[in-house]
What we know:
Distance between the termini: 43 Å
Number of domains: 2
Pfam family, one: Vir_act_alpha_C
Helix content: 55-70%
Strand content: 5-15%
InterPro entries: Tscrpt_reg_PadR_C, Tscrpt_reg_PadR_N, WH-like_DNA-bd_sf, WH_DNA-bd_sf
Domain Transcription regulator PadR N-terminal: 8-79
Protein name: PadR family transcriptional regulator
Domain Transcription regulator PadR C-terminal: 91-173
Number of helices: 7
Largest sheet: 3 strands, antiparallel
Order of helices and strands: HEHHEEHHHH
Low-confidence stretches: none
Radius of gyration: 22 Å
Structural class: mainly alpha
Amino acid sequence: xxxxxxxxxTLASKGPAxxxxxxxxxxxxxxxxxxxxxxxxxxxxxxxxxxxxVTVEETGGGRGRKVYTITEAGRxxxxxxxxxxxxxxxxxxxxALRAFLLPLLPPDRAAATMRGLxxxxxxxxxxxxxxxxxxxxxxxxxxxxxxxxxxxLGIRTFTVLRDWARETAEDLERRAAENGGKGR
Length: 184
């Protein structure tokens, strides 16, 4: 369902677009919060046309370029999805699983793993901060930019994850030093 909502939201925000343009937007903008391959986008667009959430218009010569436009039914679907959160579902989180299993590694290796994780989260955070700076450089229209709240959530999330990984590495290093580097 979320791919559908992400596509509808993109069409609602950006206006009519081809499948290629939507895929490019996913690659450039939405990729931070929802990943989708071109091969996933086109079948979903066909389902959305069939359900009446979007219309499609053939444009441009023999290349078969199709432009999709959100309908009122599609806008209603977005409104219902955003305004009525679904019940909590189990989440798969590889970082949390790694943290759960971390004590199985020798402390020095566990600390190095966490240092590497902290660096990866710091790099992702830097990318998001650059994105925010670029948005701010373009100037604000008074309205939040499309994806602006998600960008803020990403910045806060990667800040917490970076700090948590650093603190965990420090704790593991302290424990290793106290234990003479032995044990798990």
